[in-house]
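Listing S7. Sequence submitted for prediction.
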Amino acid sequence: MFSDKEVNLYLPWFPLKNLDEAKSFYQERYASIYQKEQGYAYAICLKKEYWHQGIVSEAVKSIIQQAQKEGLNYLTATHDIKNIHSGHVMKKAGMHYCYSYKEHWMPKNIPVIFRMYQINLDGKKRIYQKYWNQYEHFIEENI
């Protein structure tokens, strides 16, 4: 997945070139997540011909169900505004658009505008403020 140029188009890093880069990448970005009490990182690794068949939508629904089962209050997700398919997945899963923000991605050294979606699992009204407070932000109409 991380070696595919098309997949990495909407990710901050460059495609990985070999197994050693993949091992190093995993250690830097994900190994510590699994040491936490409630830390998750998911990847769906299927060939490109499986895109747009609803597999990710089903996976997101399962993640939401697991989060509810574990008593998490809310989930957030973001996507590059150019990656409209990710936004469709979030909406289909019941997530709601909250705001957009501009971030400068490294190491690609490019500005990216993200849309932040959220689903509140405990019925309380809230909007995750981290990106709102950290970056230049705005609300788009008709999302």
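Caption to Listing S7: primary sequence and predicted structure tokens for the chain studied. The two ends are 29 Å apart (CA to CA). The mean pLDDT is 88.
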